[in-house]
Amino acid sequence: MGKNCEFLGFNINFNAAFDFLYYFYVVKNKRYEIRKYKSGYILIDKKLNLKIFSNNYFDFFPIVIENGLELYEYKLNKKEIKNKKILDIGGYIDTPLAFSKMGTKKVVAYEPICYKLLLKNLKIDKIKNVVVKPYYVYSSESKN
After folding, report:
1. DSSP for 40-71?
2. Which residues contact residue 1 at a Cβ distance below 8 angstroms, ignoring those fewer than 6 apart?
3. 47-101, pLDDT tens digit by residue?
4. pLDDT tens digits, residue range 52-65?
5. Kind of pairing, strands 50-54 and 40-45?
6. Residue 86: CATH number of its domain
7. Structurally, how many domains does the chain consist of?
8. pTM
């Protein structure tokens, strides 16, 4: 039957989840392609010409479902960020790559959880203008 996991509050089967992701967001959309390799998966974004590696295809859900690489959540466009320096808090495995492909001068990304995976993706895409810091960013209230 395969392995089960919880996603968005639902207990789902890995195989069923992959089929869902593949059909609705790869076949239907035609922007993305997913390739399986021995060591993991690669999501190819044909629009931004990016390859994103992950050991687990569940990491691709936020990217393809929310069109994360379009950076809608940031409400930015290429003209606004071209030749600018960007600070990306919580870079995940993709947003610093997308910022770079959109023409930023430099990206400093803080990503403590997916740090190694993000570095691997930068290497795959030969991106040189991104610096990744493996630290959490948080605020604290001072009593002074």
Report:
1. EEEEEETTTTEEEEESSGGGGHHHHHTTGGGT
2. 13
3. 888 899 998 877 887 777 666 565 544 566 777 888 999 999 988 898 899 889 8
4. 999 887 788 777 76
5. antiparallel
6. 3.40.50
7. 1
8. 0.74
